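Suppose you are handed only these lines of text.
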Amino acid sequence: MAETNLSREQLVAKLNDDLSREYQAVIAYTVYSQVLKGAAYMAIAKELEVHAGEELAHALTIAKHIDYLGGMPTATPKSVVLSDDAETMLRADLGNELDTIREYRDRLRQCEALGEFAIAEDIREILRQEQEHLIDLATALGEDTPDPGKAPAGRTKKQTAKRR
Ligand SMILES: [Fe+2]
Ligand SMILES: [Fe+2]
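From them, the structure of the protein bound to fe (ii) ion can be written out as follows.
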């Protein structure tokens, strides 16, 4: 678990990292939703379009709180994997969502430790949507939803079943 006792400046830096990850998600879902081809992926392509809009809403919320805390919201996304292979795209998204969920779980505790309950409340709602994104991606890949608390990204269904 990450450190809980942050200064406000450190929280701003962490939130800017979260914002870079939200931009990454907006870009990835925008591109992948249009590039995914084939009958097997039609439903998930539509779903990814919905995700793109939700990620933009997350970015706006995080940027608002960075500004409120006296910081300057970053303009730089984390890098996006480009591929025309459906599974590569879905796995990239799945890995990013796992990272995002882990980070927001830490951020929730850090915000609460600082008494920033309104930010924590918004992050809780974002977290709920990120977990839905994770489930959508795992379902499209035909796998169990990985546990952000422990699972490394990309584990197969067979391996997951064995562990239970
Ligand atoms: Fe998001
Ligand atoms: Fe997401």
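What can we learn from it? The two ends are 24 Å apart (CA to CA). Confidence is low (pLDDT under 50) at residues 153-164.
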